[in-house]
Design goal:
With about 120 residues, the protein is an alpha+beta fold. The chain has helices spanning about 10-15, 20-30, 35-40, 50-60, 80-100, 100-105; strands spanning about 35, 65-70, 75-80. The protein has six helices and three strands, in the order ααβααββαα. Strands 1-3-2 form a three-stranded antiparallel β-sheet. Strand 2 (about 65-70) and strand 3 form a beta hairpin.
Length: about 120
């Protein structure tokens, strides 16, 4: 991972949760353990490679636990850790805020940059 620019904890959080997939993966895992194929089905536009990379990133951050099962065919499943479960209400709150503020945002004029 890239090094920090500041000592602000928000920078760490945003580095882990930034992008299209991390918050969605946490959201889909909130209902319980899922196999890799379940997560692909939940997110049909994510490539196999990107899904694997994002899950590894969440695992390295301590938000997701990966469990490999023996047998044939071998399968792997993913579940939220305690830290990941603590994050779910914040993700839900962001979604609630976004929906509640939709009308206000729709009525506001676009911001333009002043040259």
């Amino acid at each position: 991972m890239k090094s920090l620019v500041s000592a602000c904890p928000i920078e760490d959080v945003m580095r882990v949760l930034s992008g299209r997939w991390p918050a969605l993966l946490l959201y889909y895992l909130k209902d319980g353990t899922k196999r890799f194929s379940d997560l692909q089905r939940d997110n049909p536009t994510v490539s196999h490679r990107i899904l694997a990379l994002e899950l590894r990133k969440l695992e390295a951050a301590g938000l997701v636990r990966r469990t490999e099962h023996q047998g044939y065919p071998r399968h792997v499943d993913y579940a939220l850790t305690a830290a990941g479960r603590e994050l779910v209400p914040m993700i839900d709150a962001l979604a609630d805020w976004w929906e509640a503020s939709a009308a206000r945002r729709a009525g506001e004029p676009e911001l333009t940059q002043v040259a």
